[in-house]
UniProtKB/TrEMBL annotation:
Signal peptide: none
GO MF term set: ATP binding; ATP hydrolysis activity; ATPase-coupled transmembrane transporter activity
Every ABC transporter domain range: 52-290, 318-519
Source species, domain of life: Bacteria
Function recorded in the entry: Probably part of an ABC transporter complex. Responsible for energy coupling to the transport system.
Protein name: ABC transporter ATP-binding protein
Annotated organism of origin: Rubneribacter badeniensis
PROSITE patterns according to UniProt: ABC_TRANSPORTER_1, ABC_TRANSPORTER_2
PANTHER family in the record: ABC TRANSPORTER ATP-BINDING COMPONENT (PTHR43553:SF23), HEAVY METAL TRANSPORTER (PTHR43553)
InterPro entries according to UniProt: AAA+_ATPase (IPR003593), ABC_transporter-like_ATP-bd (IPR003439), ABC_transporter-like_CS (IPR017871), ABC_transpr_CbiO/EcfA_su (IPR015856), ECF_ABC_transporter_ATP-bd (IPR050095), P-loop_NTPase (IPR027417)
GO cellular component, one term: ATP-binding cassette (ABC) transporter complex
Assigned keywords, A-Z: ATP-binding, Cell membrane, Membrane, Nucleotide-binding, Repeat, Translocase, Transport
Main location, first listed in the record: membrane
């Protein structure tokens, strides 16, 4: 069975047809059924060579931002190595050294050795490096070249000149394997963040590269999506592909990862085998800021109206009445009604594509409902008025910031008196962002941008805060900081709505739960 596209019976059969019998045995080493060129580099791979090798690799970005220093790392064919460690520790930089984006795109000074398949990476043309190493970025939408799903999955195969029949077979197989058939005909910008993440992985897997590099691939995935990815990675390993994963959420990698490399301050502090990682105590994991080694299910919490306490007040602060949302003739959800009270942290959960982010934008006045009304503080408000009462922290934080520094972002549109500045400093300190107060938001890591979005919400005067996957790029220590901050906001009398697939976060701070499958 092909390693490229396994995960459902139909997908497995289609993938075997796409790859051919030989391709089913060795990832990227054989020609496809339609006679496509081998995925391996035209220069070949030295016999017995490692798939990826970094020796004393150091990189500093052109703008002076710290990268990594003295990294020694080896990934063998058929092996999965996981990069973990605090947000901003250099994990993404290591992935860029492997796929060649640093220094080709992310300019800076590179020292040491980077070898792909035993060959000096500097000697490989970028197109050849790109064929050998497939990548999934932290922000999946940033790697899309097409407007439609099938074209995106086929894009790399087309660029490598594969025969038309093989391209179609590979594309269909990967769409089936990643459970994307039901959204196949939708434009990419109409997909949820989790669906986009699955498209990005499918398009990376489709051409059958020898090395797969993934940066936070489960950040926006629901449990089913993470299980699909785990199945794919296991099959890729079995077929001889090397997999390098930068990840905070480690539970899905149990039984798949062979080694873990822990980065801190741009350096690899230690490497441990899978068995050594499993043996870490809870105290050691917390000291290193690591997430749980086993999956934490979303807690079975009551609905907001059933979870009220005497401290929550008598009047709901947020109410949805028979809301409906339709786009382009497609009904996303309808007849959605619920209430939430001050002092509550409400987990809004549901599968990828259920419409959670759309509901959040409607509540915050950033999207229009097709029917129904939203009440804030007991008053039905139009979209413009809701924007002044409800804060929305987007899942894609790259689109949310407008200034050139972290400090300016917090103070944007506010009267800068001493009290506000003191509160801003306190908020940055509590969220671990004070060292970056003068940094441009675009230079922050994904996890740091998530915390900045949270800081903006906490510093706002709005009584209702809505955050979309606020821990999607966070390590264990940062997740715990965010959970504490959300709980404190609720205790101060605000209503907090959190869209999340993160069982660890929900277990720590959420007081009640809304399930999209029960609302719509």
């Amino acid at each position: 069975m092909s390693a490229r596209c396994e995960g459902s019976a139909a997908g497995a059969e289609a993938c075997e047809a796409a790859s051919g019998a030989a391709g089913a045995r060795a990832c990227g080493t054989a020609e496809g059924a339609a006679g496509g060129a081998p995925v391996s580099s035209a220069r070949g791979v030295a016999s017995g060579a490692s798939a990826v090798e970094l020796r004393g690799a150091s990189f500093r970005y052109e703008d002076g931002d710290a990268g990594v220093e003295g990294v020694d790392l080896v990934v063998h064919p058929g092996e999965c190595v996981v990069l973990t460690g605090p947000s901003g520790s250099g994990k993404t930089t290591v992935t860029r050294l492997v796929n060649g984006l640093a220094p080709a795109y992310w300019h800076g000074e590179l020292a040491g050795e980077v070898r792909i398949g035993g060959i000096d990476a500097a000697a490989l043309p970028l197109w050849e490096r790109g064929r050998a190493v497939a990548s999934v970025f932290q922000d999946p939408a940033s790697q899309f070249f097409s407007f439609e799903l099938a074209g995106e999955v086929a894009f790399a195969c087309e660029n490598y000149g594969m025969p038309t029949r093989e391209i179609v077979e590979r594309t269909d197989a990967c769409i089936a394997a990643f459970d994307l058939e039901r959204v196949r005909d939708r434009p990419l910008d109409a997909l949820s963040s989790g669906e986009k993440q699955r498209v990005a992985v499918a398009s990376a897997v489709a051409p059958g590269s020898r090395v797969l590099v993934c940066d936070e691939p489960t950040a926006n995935l629901d449990a089913d999506g993470a299980a699909l990815l785990a199945s794919q990675v296991a099959q890729l390993k079995a077929a001889g592909c090397a997999v390098l994963v930068s990840e905070h959420r480690l539970a899905w990698l149990a039984g798949i990862a062979d080694r873990y490399a822990y980065l801190e301050g741009g350096q690899v502090r230690w490497q441990r085998s899978a068995s050594e990682m499993e043996a870490l105590s809870a105290g050691e994991r917390e000291r290193f800021g690591l997430r749980s080694a086993s999956a934490v299910a979303l807690p079975e919490l009551a609905r907001p109206e059933d979870a009220r306490t005497s401290a929550d007040g008598t009047a709901p602060s947020l109410e949805a009445r028979r809301l409906a949302c339709r786009r382009g003739g497609h009904t996303i959800w309808e007849d959605v009604s619920f209430r939430a009270w001050p002092g509550q942290v409400v987990a809004l959960t549901g599968r990828n594509g259920a419409g959670k982010s759309t509901l959040a934008r409607v509540l915050a006045g950033l999207a229009r409902q097709s029917a129904g009304e939203v009440l804030v503080g007991g008053r039905a408000l139009r979209s413009a008025a809701r924007r002044r009462r409800v804060f929305y922290g987007a899942n894609d934080t790259a689109t949310q910031f407008f200034t050139s520094s972290v400090s300016d972002e917090l103070l944007l549109g506010r009267v800068r008196d001493e009290g506000l500045i003191a509160r801003a400093r306190d908020t940055l300190g509590r969220l671990g962002l004070m060292p970056f107060k003068d940094a441009h938001p675009a230079t922050l890591s994904g996890g740091q941008r998530q915390r900045l979005a949270l800081a903006c919400g906490l510093l706002s005067d709005r009584p209702v805060l809505v955050f979309d996957e606020p821990t999607s790029g966070l390590d264990g220590a940062s997740m715990r900081i965010v959970a504490t901050a959300l709980s404190e906001a609720a205790r101060a009398g605000r209503t907090v709505i959190v869209i999340t697939h993160d069982g660890e976060l929900a277990e720590r701070c959420c007081t009640c739960r809304l399930r999209m499958e029960e609302l719509a």
